[in-house]
Structure formats: C-alpha cells, structure tokens
Amino acid sequence: MHSEIRSRQARERAEDALVRFVLLAGDRAIDFVVIGGLNPDFLATRAPVPHQGTTDIDLLFALGFDNVAATPDYSWIDEALEAGGFSSVNMWRWDAMLGGARVRLEFLCDVWDHTDDTVPLPRSRSAVASKIAGPAAALHAPMVRELRVSDVVRAVVPDAPEAVSIRFANLGGYLLAKTAAALERRLEKDKYDLMYVILYNAGGPREAARAVARQLIATEDSSDPEEIRGAMDNYLDARGAWTGTFAQMMIATGDTAPEEQLRTDASEGARSFLEELNG
Q: Which of 85-94, 136-145, 163-172, 217-226 bottoms out in mean pLDDT, i.e. has the lowest?
C-alpha cells in the first residue's frame, strides 16, 4: 500500500473500505469524521479535471484527556475490525481485502495533552489513533453525506442498505486539517490537495477563506490562523515549489492548461484567499 500510486481506481477502493467500515460500525459511525481522501471530490465541484484520487481513508476521532470519564467507548472498533478482516502492524493503520483488492483505513486524533505518538482509543483492545497536530477543527460542524453501497461491498454484505450516512469535514475544516498535514509532512500530495480545493470549491478562493474564518472562530481554542496564512504564503511565488507541485499534478491528471497558467492560478488563488481572510 505504501507504494501504490494515487488513482481514481484506488479512490473507489478507498470509498468501498469506508462504506464497509461504516456498515460494521453501525450507530457508532458518528464517533469519527472523514478528514482526507474522499473530500476533494465533494468540495471541489468546479474542478476542470477529476481529483488525483487517494489510496486510504483518514478517520479523525474526537479524543481528549481533560475529562476521561466523558470519553466515548471505542470497544466496538475491535469487533468491527475483526468482522471486516482488517489487520495492522502499528494499531492505527488497518488493511483488509475487499473484492480482491487491498484497502486501508487510518485512525487519527489531535490531542494536545498526550506525549506519545499514538493515543489509546478508550476500551479498545486492538486499536489506537496516531496523534497529529492541527486537524481538530475538522470535527466542528461536519457535513453528513450519503455514499452508495457498491456491488463490491454488497457482495460481502448482501443485506446492506442502498446507501450509508457518513460525517465528512466541511470546507473550512478540511482546509485547516489539510494545512496541518501540508506543513507537517511536506508531501507533494498535500500541497496539491490544498490548492485544488481552494481554487475549485463552488465559491473559489474567497469562499474558501470565508469558510476557514468561520471555522477558526468556532474552534479558536484548537486552531492557529497563522498556519494557513503561512501555507498560503508558500504559493504566492508563481515560480516557487508549491505552485509548481500543484501545476504538475494537475497536468498529470489531465488538465490541458499550460503549466505557467496553472502556477499563476495557484498564486492568484492564494493571494485572493489571504486578502479575504485578512480583510
């Protein structure tokens, strides 16, 4: 899975993995929010070409240790993972076979007051969440989306409903979570994902900035506005590495615009975003 290239086919398998896990989770599917992977397709509805795709699904859990007694009971995860045939070597990244293809889920959390790299999922014997800084804002006001149960999933769960309801990060939450990933991991895919959604959401860069502003107000205790400002600064130079990464990945996925134009689009998008956010 580590070496698999992101593609639309891999995205379909990732969506199947998510739907299968939600069916296994049942009523407990409200315990997590989808923060990566599938979101660009739902958020960037004006994109000239489909998103590059994804190979895995990132599930963010609301964990905190200020009030342990109020922490959800995650013992249900053990049964769901076992029933789905998922296995793991690190307890937070889980793989399974579905329809003859390997699929992956990743469990994440954003916890300030825990020093280890992973955080136990309370009352789970087999699973933990990998601790990453910054995505907690995605837990606020998530969007409930319906995903169709594919034939691949139905072959495993014949009595499944036509669709399942799943909580996804909203526009502002996704952008703040993706910013945290882009700054921490410095992976090319994060730089591409971030600008893809900023440029091609229904309202463009200025609506993206307004959505982030709303999310920052609602999550001021866990969000740092300077992080997304710093990320946008990296796109301002149309000749820079961040705009180059975005342009090259757009071309690789079928965009016929010249690289120079795509670089300029990213640079101007970042400029408009910052003007709206700061104004």
A: 217-226
CB neighbour burial string for 225-263, b if at least 16 within 10 angstroms, e if fewer: bebbbebbebbeebeeebbbbbbebbeebebeeeeeebb
- What is the spatial distance between Cα 51 and Cα 75, in angstroms, rounded to a whole number? 35
The residue with tokens 């013992």 is 75
What is this structure's pTM? 0.91
Question: Residue 22, CB half-sphere, CA atoms under 13 Å: how many?
Answer: 28
* Closest to 39 in 3D by CA, of 157, 143, 150: 143
Question: Per-domain residue ranges for the chain?
Answer: 8-168, 171-278
How far, in Å, are 73, 86, 128, 153, 259 from residue 79 at the CA level?
13, 10, 14, 18, 49
Q: What are 237-251's pLDDT values in tens digits?
A: 999 999 999 999 999
Phi, psi (degrees; rounded to nearest 5) at 58: -100, 120
Q: Is the pLDDT of residue 197 over 60?
A: yes
